[in-house]
Every structure is written in structure tokens, then in C-alpha cells.
């Protein structure tokens, strides 16, 4: 049954690149439009059948292996591959360093991995490594943080970005009665997903003239750094009513800082990801909401695609664009957080 499901997924990818979210409108593209030589490169791809007992090695290379997102993706990948003893998954953490990721990529290429699942620390810095892997016949599936957009590779699996910012902005505006001072805790500038999240939030909140963004500062996805940033916001803007953090870890840090300042529940704090600690903070009233995506499913989907790439004739040279699989988002607030079952909390 699982093999059949993967075959169906391959058929879906061949038909279209799933709808990507943009600032303008949802656009559908056919990345298979030029099936011969579309990727403009050469590949040394050799088909290996994971389901016939042939040995398969998959490398998962994370920006920071210790974060809840990365742990969720890792577990999803491992769950998907656990049924076959001949499929091995090795996980690597780059400790937030693009330079380290480049070195790990080089090592994995030299060691002859059959596929690589990668969360890019820096899309531009990792693009040559992604291209090198694909040319060596190693399919690369990126997760959430992609390589440079002009580097065609086997697939990108991602949560919504622009639309996540848009949905958070609309719900926060509703919760604030469409008035008040707010701030943004940014991720790492220059990463497509985080830039799109912020742009979606800013462009949507601009529709509410009585809501003013008074400050924005990066906390580099880190909870502790976000606490420091939030404390600075509270000192500079005593009338602050809302905060949008680009990921849940930073939202949790902002919520802890608000607690320490005796402002629990007085500031509308939003995140994006949907990790279990954020859901618990929504239940306790420390956070106002988040945009939930099931990271286990996201990791599992990346693994499915990696296996179908390994076991098929398909390679990146057939593509005119990188296929995108966009995971389903859910707007979560106190009103519906109880509908996220425990077994779906990563």
C-alpha cells in the first residue's frame, strides 16, 4: 500500500508543482513542461529500488537539529523509512552554520548517499552544493528553507509562508479590535520563507489603519534571544498591544518576557509553526495564536519524495522549475486549540 501511495505521489508531482503562495496570487506551474533536458544540467543518477531490498542511504541535514521543527521533520522522515531495514537515515545538525552545512553536503556526496533532505541555512551559500549533489545523481529535497530559487532540484516541501503571515495578521487584527501598537520579532533576514512570512504580515496589517507597527528586530529564531528583544520592546513601547514572531520559539520567548513583566494575557502574541509548546501556551493564555503545520507529516512527505526519486528514472534534468509541495496550514487560537489531538502535537 505504501509503495502504491508513493507511486501516486510521483504522478502528482509529474502533473504539477503544487500551488505556491505569493504576494500577488496563487500560481500553478508545470515544472515538467520541457521533459527533455529542462533542468539544463547533467545527472549521474542510478536507479535503486528501495522496495526490492537494495540498500538506500538518506541524509537529513538540518539548520539546527535541536529545534522542535527539525526534530519533528526528523521523526517524520524516520517513521516513513522505519518499515524497511535496508533504508538507513542519518541526521546531521549544522549548528546554524551555512559553512558547516556546505561541508556536510560535500561529505554526503562523497559518501554516496542516495538522497539528501536539506533545510538550507543560507539559500545562496548552499545552491552550489545542491547543484553538485543533483549532478552526482543524488536527489535533493529541501524542507521549508530552500536554496536559491534559480537552482532547480528534485523538490521543496514547505509550510505556507506569505499566507501564514497574512492569516496571522487578520486574526491578530480581529483580536485587537483593529487598533493598537504592535511589533515584529524577525527571523534571519534573507531567508525566503521568513521574508515571505514578514511580508505577508506587513502587507495584510496595512489594511488596518489604526494598527501601527512600531518596531521590528531579529531574534534569529532563538527563544532566549526573543526574550531579550521582547524586553526591549516593552521598555521602548509601554503601550504595546501585539507581537508577531516569525516562528513559535521566538513567540514563546516573547510570552515568557511578558510573563516576567506581569503582562501575561495583556499582549496579543502570535507565532508560526504550531509546535506543542506553543499550543500549550495558547491553552494557558500566554500566546494568542499560531499557524499550525504538522511537521511529522512534512518530514514524512519529504521522505516519500526522496524514496520515489531514488527508485525511479526521474531526475532534476527533466524539470523547468523545482516542484513544491505546500503543507496545509491551520489558524490556531484558544477557540480551536483543543481540536489539535495529542498525537498530532510534535
Describe the structure.
This protein is of the alpha/beta class and about 350 residues long. It has two domains: about 1-155 and about 295-325, Rossmann fold; about 160-290, Response regulator (Rossmann fold, 3-Layer(aba) Sandwich). It contains ten helices and 14 strands. It has helices at about 1-15, 70-80, 100-110, 125-135, 160-175, 190-205, 225-235, 250-260, 275-285, 295-310, and strands at about 15-20, 25-30, 55-60, 85-95, 115-120, 140-145, 155-160, 180-185, 210-220, 240-245, 270, 290, 325, 330-335. Strands 4-3-5-6-7-13 form a six-stranded parallel β-sheet, sandwiched between helices. Strand 1 and strand 2 (about 25-30) form a beta hairpin. Helix 1 (about 1-15) crosses helix 10 (about 295-310), helix 3 (about 100-110) runs parallel beside helix 4 and helix 5 runs parallel beside helix 6. The longest helix is centred in the last third of the chain and has 16 residues, at about 295-310. The chain is elongated, with a radius of gyration of 21 Å.
Beta strands, count: 14
* Number of discrete helical segments: 10
- Reading off the top of the CATH hierarchy, the class of the largest domain is best stated as Alpha Beta
What CATH architecture label of the largest domain applies? 3-Layer(aba) Sandwich
**Oligomer status:** single chain
Structural category: alpha/beta
Q: What is the CATH superfamily of the largest domain?
A: Response regulator
* Radius of gyration over all CA atoms, rounded: 21 Å
Shape annotation = elongated
Supply the number of structural domains: 2
Biggest beta sheet summary: 6 strands, parallel
Helix and strand succession?
HEEEHEHEHEEHEHEHEHEHEHEE
What is the terminal separation in angstroms? 25 Å
Amino acid at each position: 500500500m505504501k509503495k502504491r501511495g508513493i507511486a501516486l505521489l510521483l504522478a502528482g508531482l509529474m502533473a504539477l508543482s503544487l500551488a505556491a503562495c505569493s504576494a500577488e496570487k496563487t500560481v500553478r506551474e508545470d515544472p515538467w513542461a520541457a521533459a527533455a533536458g529542462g533542468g539544463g544540467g547533467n545527472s549521474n543518477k542510478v536507479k535503486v529500488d528501495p522496495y526490492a531490498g537494495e540498500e538506500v542511504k538518506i541524509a537529513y541535514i538540518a539548520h539546527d537539529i535541536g529545534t522542535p521543527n527539525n526534530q519533528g521533520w526528523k521523526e517524520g522522515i524516520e517513521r516513513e523509512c522505519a518499515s524497511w531495514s535496508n533504508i538507513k537515515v542519518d541526521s546531521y545538525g549544522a549548528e546554524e552554520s551555512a559553512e558547516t552545512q556546505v561541508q556536510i553536503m560535500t561529505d554526503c556526496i562523497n559518501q554516496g548517499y542516495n538522497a539528501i533532505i536539506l533545510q538550507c541555512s543560507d539559500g545562496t551559500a548552499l545552491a552550489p552544493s545542491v547543484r553538485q549533489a543533483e549532478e552526482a545523481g543524488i536527489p535533493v529535497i529541501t524542507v521549508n528553507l530552500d536554496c536559491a530559487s534559480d537552482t532547480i532540484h528534485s523538490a521543496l516541501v514547505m509550510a505556507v509562508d506569505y499566507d501564514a503571515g497574512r492569516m496571522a495578521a487578520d486574526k491578530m487584527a480581529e483580536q485587537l479590535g483593529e487598533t493598537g501598537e504592535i511589533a515584529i520579532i524577525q527571523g534571519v533576514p534573507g531567508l525566503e520563507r521568513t521574508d515571505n512570512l514578514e511580508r505577508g504580515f506587513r502587507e495584510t496589517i496595512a489594511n488596518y489603519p489604526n494598527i501601527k507597527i512600531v518596531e521590528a528586530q531579529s531574534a534569529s529564531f532563538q527563544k532566549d534571544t526573543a526574550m531579550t528583544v521582547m524586553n526591549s520592546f516593552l521598555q521602548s513601547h509601554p503601550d504595546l498591544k501585539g507581537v508577531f514572531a516569525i516562528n513559535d520559539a521566538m513567540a514563546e520567548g516573547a510570552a515568557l518576557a511578558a510573563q516576567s513583566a506581569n503582562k501575561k494575557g495583556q499582549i496579543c502574541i502570535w507565532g508560526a509553526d504550531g509546535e506543542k509548546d506553543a499550543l500549550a501556551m495558547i491553552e494557558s493564555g500566554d500566546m494568542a495564536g499560531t499557524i499550525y503545520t504538522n511537521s511529522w507529516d512534512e518530514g514524512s512527505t519529504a521522505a516519500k519524495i526522496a524514496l520515489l526519486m531514488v527508485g525511479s528514472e526521474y531526475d532534476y534534468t527533466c524539470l523547468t522549475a523545482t516542484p513544491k509541495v505546500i503543507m496545509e496550514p491551520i489558524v490556531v487560537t484558544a477557540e480551536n486549540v483543543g481540536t489539535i489531538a495529542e498525537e498530532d502535537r510534535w
